[in-house]
Write a structure and sequence with these properties.
Layout lengths: L2 H16 L1 H15 L11 H23 L1 H7 L7 H4 L4 H22 L1 H18 L10 H23 L5 H18 L7 H6 L5 H26 L7 H21 L4 H30 L4 H32 L3
């Protein structure tokens, strides 16, 4: 195999492991970490050091998870393009090498930024190992996994972003982090619906398998309510953001009700996708709020933008649910 082919395969493997939709979400949380300081709209460091650090950490996380869950993935994700061990696009040794390189790059660059970011990334790499590998293997521990996974998906990119532009966290940054973390638990609890067959077969006792559909949706709804209330503690009661977030929360709870009272893999996944639209809408609207605030936008301008985002993401939620109904009319299962 020529050098060019090796480079192409390596690049393709990195892209598969970084899983672009999730990478965009991580970068959004990093931007939110920088937003209270008014630094979320600049090229540096969000799209330079922060991007590489968070990307390296996430590649390490996905590599360890794929190596640990190869047998489960062969049941749950037989047609998935993003699982190179399942598709045969990489060997275990190739994947392990990629994970080690990604971890080193993330850690070295993090300490180059400052020691605080370095400590956060070191803790994140340890979390990756504890989540996927024996003897701890948090991923097999039900509710504990749902509590710990957002530390990586939310807290790590948020803290890398925040601590790259300021020496510590103030009240606003802490409240924002807590709200995002709790809300994301509500989203991550729904991930297990996709993998329920393989998880049950291999004894992976997720929250869904332990407590059932109704309890999972109730727990998710409680997290959405608590997380949204925490985030709204940062804005005045009369802000248009309160109204927009109330609509987003209503959509999420409506989606959870439909998820709790329906069955069938297709229906579940489309409904969960609709709820995810609301989560993205919340994060993007918050980012816009802080950015406009630091740019000195007048209240009327900020309100118009947030109202537009509210209409956009609510519309996306409704369109996704309509797609669900069309699909079910053709393929009920």
């Amino acid at each position: 195999m020529g050098e060019q082919q090796v480079t192409v395969r390596a690049s393709r493997l990195v892209l598969m492991m970084i899983r672009p939709p999730v990478a965009v979400l991580l970068l959004l949380f990093a931007a939110l970490g920088m937003a209270p300081a008014g630094r979320a709209d600049g090229l540096h460091p969000l799209f330079t050091t922060v991007l590489v650090i968070v990307g390296g950490w996430f590649v390490h996380a996905t590599v360890l998870n794929d190596l640990a869950d190869e047998s489960i993935d062969r049941v749950n994700l037989t047609a998935a393009r993003g699982r190179p061990l399942v598709t045969g696009e990489a060997t275990r040794s190739q994947l392990a090498l990629l994970g080690n390189i990604a971890a080193v790059v993330a850690l070295v660059l993090a300490f180059t930024v400052n020691w605080r970011v370095g400590v956060v990334v070191a803790a994140g790499l340890a979390l990756n190992a504890a989540y996927s590998l024996r003897p701890v293997r948090i991923s097999h521990r039900g509710a504990v996994a749902s509590l710990m996974l957002p530390l990586g998906y939310v807290a790590l990119p948020y803290l890398v972003g925040a601590l790259s532009v300021q020496p510590g966290l103030g009240r606003t940054e802490i409240v924002l982090l807590v709200g995002l973390y709790v809300t994301f638990i509500g989203r991550i609890l729904l991930k297990d619906f996709r993998d329920v067959s393989g998880d049950g077969l291999f004894g992976k006792r997720t929250f869904l398998l332990r407590h059932g559909r109704q309890a999972t949706c109730l727990a998710s709804g409680a997290c959405w309510v608590a997380g949204t209330a925490t985030l709204l503690a940062l804005v005045p009661v009369r802000s248009i953001l309160v109204t927009v977030f109330a609509v987003f929360l209503g959509c999420a709870l409506h989606g959870l009700h439909r998820l709790a009272t329906t069955s069938g893999h297709i229906a579940e996944q489309v409904t969960i996708g609709a709820i995810a639209q609301v989560g993205r809408g919340m994060a993007i609207t918050l980012l816009a709020h802080f950015t406009m605030l630091h740019k000195g936008w007048p209240p009327a301008g900020r309100g118009l933008v947030m109202l537009t985002l509210g209409i956009l993401f609510t519309g996306m939620y409704l369109v996704t649910l309509a797609q669900r109904d069309r699909v079910l009319a053709i393929r009920p299962y």
